[in-house]
Design goal:
mainly alpha; 77% helix
Length: 179
């Protein structure tokens, strides 16, 4: 019961955030006033946005492993290695008011996103398995959550990594355009 409640809420929030993300990207591309506002906003609050996104992922992953009882597989642990430090480092950067930290967090988001993308594809049944853990019957091939036909736990991580990448790219673009 608890597992299904957690899954229903988190999957719905992921779906909602995916819809907002697509609308956001379209508006960012076509609406110059909106783009300028977002550039200014992200430039000012980049560390808070990264902290909020990475902390949400951290709490979500701990909810699934410690409350819902879904043990993290090898690829989930690797994704956590790229996600968890971002919460701590962005928090420290907020305290120090050091936006240079974005430069160090960006590669972590890209690497974590690549792992999450691979894990998502194997969970959806696309492509062959490159790793033993993702082959049929392997620990990483288990699908604990499949909502709306595409939302799995690795896809939730991929979603967060995509948001972190977008935040960083917008920050870099806003900084470049201000110079």
């Amino acid at each position: 019961m608890l597992q299904s409640n957690i899954t229903a809420v988190v999957a719905f929030l992921t779906l909602l955030s995916n819809i907002v993300f697509v609308v956001f990207i379209i508006a960012l591309y076509f609406k110059k006033d909106f783009r300028n506002y977002i550039y200014t906003f992200v430039n000012k609050y980049v560390l808070q946005l990264i902290f909020a996104s990475s902390m949400t992922a951290l709490v979500g992953s701990l909810l699934y492993s410690n409350v819902a009882g879904f043990p993290p597989c090898e690829l989930c642990w690797i994704q956590r290695i790229f996600m968890y430090p971002q919460a701590l480092l962005s928090f420290m950067a907020m305290i120090w008011k050091d936006k240079r930290m974005v430069t160090y967090l960006f590669p972590m988001s890209i690497l974590g996103g690549v792992i999450a993308l691979y894990h998502s594809f194997t969970n959806w049944g696309y492509g062959g398995s490159l790793l033993g853990c993702t082959s049929v019957g392997g620990e990483c091939s288990r699908v604990y959550v499949l909502e709306y036909g595409y939302i799995t736990i690795p896809f939730m991580a991929l979603t967060t990594f995509a948001y972190l990448i977008l935040i960083s790219v917008i920050y870099y673009k806003s900084t470049k355009e201000r110079i």
